[in-house]
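Extended Data, panel c. Modelled sequence:
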Amino acid sequence: MSDEQEDIQSLLDSPSYVLAEQDLQFLARRELRPVRMQLELLKPELAFAEQNIDSTIVVFGATSICERKVAVERLDAVRALLAKSPNDERLVRKVAIAERVLAKSRFYDDAREFARIVSTLGQQQDGKREYVVVTGGGPGIMEAANRGAHDVGAKSIGLNITLPAEQLPNRYITPSLCFRFHYFALRKLHFLLRAQALVVFPGGFGTLDEFFDAITLRQTRNMQEIPIIMYGREYWEHVIDFQFLADEGVIADEHLKLFEYADTPQQAWEIIARFHAAKTAPGDRA
C-alpha cells in the first residue's frame, strides 16, 4: 500500500469519520443525553402511530406474583430446604414469604382475566385500536396482563427498563410493541400519555412509584382525567392509610375520590366503562 493509500485509510478508519447516526460512542456521550431522551420519546411514539394505537389501559403490579402452580412449586422447594435445616431462620422467613406469594397468586389470574376483557372489548381489526394493554414488560402481574391480551389474539405493549439485574421481557408482549428504556421519566411518560385507565395490582416500590406519579399528576391536574383503580382493597388499605393522610390534612378529602377499589376483573372494567360513559354523555363535558 502506498503512503497516500495509507493516509486515506487512516482517515477512513478514524472514529471522527463515522456517520453521527452510526457512532454509538458519540451517541453515548453525556452531552448527547437530550438527543437520547428525544429518541426514547420518538421511537415508541412512531410505532404506536403506525399501528393505530389510540388509547391504552395501564396495568401495574409486582414482578413476584406468579400463577398458582409456579407459586406452589417455589413454596415446595423452599419447604424442602427447611426440612433439611429446620433451625435456619433465613429459610423460615423464606417459607413465610413464599406462603404469602402463593396467597396472592389469584391476582395473576385476575390480571390475566382483566386484560382479556379489556382487549376483547377495546381492540378492532380495522381502524384505531383502543384500550391496548400496556405493562412494564416484565414478569409477574405484567406478564399476566400481556398474557390475557395474547389469549384473545390482541396486541399489547411492554415498556421494559434497563436495570442492574437485567429484566427480560415476558413472552406475551406483541414483538413490535416491546420497547426498552434507559430513562424512567420517558417510560413513565409513555405509560400515561394515552392512558384511559390505570389499574394498580398489589406490588412494591416500583408499583408504588408508578402509582404515586400518576395520582400526583391527577391531583395537580397535569394529566387527563382517568380512573385509577387500586386492585385488591384489603392489600392496599393495609399498605397505605389514605384516610389518615386526609385526616392529617396533608391531602384534601376530595383527593380520596381520585381513585377507586376493585376486587374482581369485571368490577374493574365496569369502573372504567362507567367513567368514560359519563365523560362522553351529552351535557357532561366541561
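The two ends are 77 Å apart (CA to CA). This feature is highlighted in the accompanying rendering.
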